[in-house]
Amino acid sequence: MIHVPTAAGLHYAGDAAAWISAYLGARWVYAYRRGSVEALARQTAPSYFVSMALGAAAGAWAIGSLNTLQSKIPVLSHSVAGALAGGIVAVELWKWIHGVKASTGGPFVIPLTLGIVVGRWGCLFAGLPDQTYGIPTTLPWGVDLGDGISRHPVEIYESLAMAAFLGLYWNALVRKRAWATAHGFHYFALAYAAQRFAWEFLKPYTKIIGPLNVFHLLMIGLAIYASLWIAAGRTATGHSA
């Protein structure tokens, strides 16, 4: 068991580090993938980003609170998974209203992934008050977050999983692979949904349907969304599913 020094305030330090990482990722995209940024600018308007921000904020607090209000000590909270889902819903509604049919999420993949990779470490060091800890484990890499119980470091699992996706995506983007250039955001959403769905079984959250919690259900919806976009793209280009 590995003892991890924790402090609730480190969650905010993790958030700050995540935002800085996302910003640096966005700078890289602007410098080396400027064409995708310019395409986004041509397809959208300032209201696109306002809608995205409002949707992300609403989704973050709605989904996060829906989960933690069911705990033994009900509290309001926010969630990156909820922010992602809320932002997607808001953007898709904006696109539908304005008649935009193409994918617009490509420029956000690297910033979002970097934010998740870095931000999850803030959740780990925030400890038990963050309510993102794992269930007990006897594995040698279990972490003690201050209560003497060895737990799955689910925050690290998620960080490493998304770092692996980032490496694959970055390599594919540089090599101009079709899946990364045309549907990078949807593969990001699918990868995030798959790994998050798996780790949710290692968290002590309240179950909603059978063994599934709120985030399991949300990830199923996110995976369906991404899969439909990918399938539609394959059909449009004449590739088989």
Main sheet: strand order = 1-2-3
Helix-strand string: EHHHHHEEHHEEH
Count of alpha and pi helical runs: 8
The total tally of domains equals 1
Q: So what's the overall shape? A: globular
Largest sheet: number of strands, sense, barrel closure: 3 strands, mixed
Alpha-beta classification: mainly alpha
Mean pLDDT: 94
**Proportion in helices:** 55-70%
| Uncertain stretches | none
Portion of residues in beta strands equals: under 5%
* Assembly classification: single chain
Tell me the distance between the termini.
Answer: 45 Å
| Strand tally | 5
Rg (CA only): 18 Å
Structure commentary:
The protein is mostly helical and 241 residues long. It has one domain. 66% of the residues lie in helices and 5% in strands. It has eight helices and five strands; from the N terminus they run E-H-H-H-H-H-E-E-H-H-E-E-H. The chain has helices at 10-32, 34-43, 46-68, 80-98, 109-126, 154-174, 178-200, 214-236, and strands spanning 2-3, 143-144, 150-151, 207-209, 212-213. A three-stranded mixed β-sheet has the order 1-2-3, with no helix packed on it. A two-stranded antiparallel ribbon has the order 4-5. Strand 2 and strand 3 form a beta hairpin. Helix 1 crosses helix 2 (34-43) and helix 1 runs antiparallel to helix 5. The longest helix has 23 residues, at 10-32. It is globular and about 55 Å long. It starts with a strand and ends in a 5-residue tail after the last helix. The relative contact order is 0.14. The mean pLDDT is 94.
